[in-house]
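Problem statement: downstream parser choked on a complex file, so we are re-checking the raw output for the FE2/S2 (inorganic) cluster run. The parser issue turned out to be on our end (a line-ending mismatch), but while we're here, posting the original submission so the record is complete.
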Amino acid sequence: MIEVTFLTNGGKTVSAAENSNLLRVSLREQGGIPFKCGGGLCGTCKCLIEKGIENTDAIKPKERKHLTDEQFAAGYRMACQTFLTGSVSVSWVPKAVAQPARPVAVDGE
Ligand code: FES
């Protein structure tokens, strides 16, 4: 078994089988990595492998559409395209908190 630590989710740590897909682990364990398509198209699942980048599999061509060489070098991957051969710690940019709707000004009031 390997461990996945979701840093942006308060450091929640879960166990998973070796060769698990990172986004699938997040979905199963409510890790919280953002996603939309699950298929390498939207780029929403971009995340930073802060520890254990050596425990991820090869970068896929689909990831190259959303991430630069500099980002790969810094440890970024797309969770839905990444399989884990060992333990990792992952962070991401949280979705913006929805702003409350502004009250609509009504003429004459
Ligand atoms: S969820 Fe869309 S690219 Fe990963």
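For whoever reads this later: Residues 22-29 form the longest helix (8 residues).
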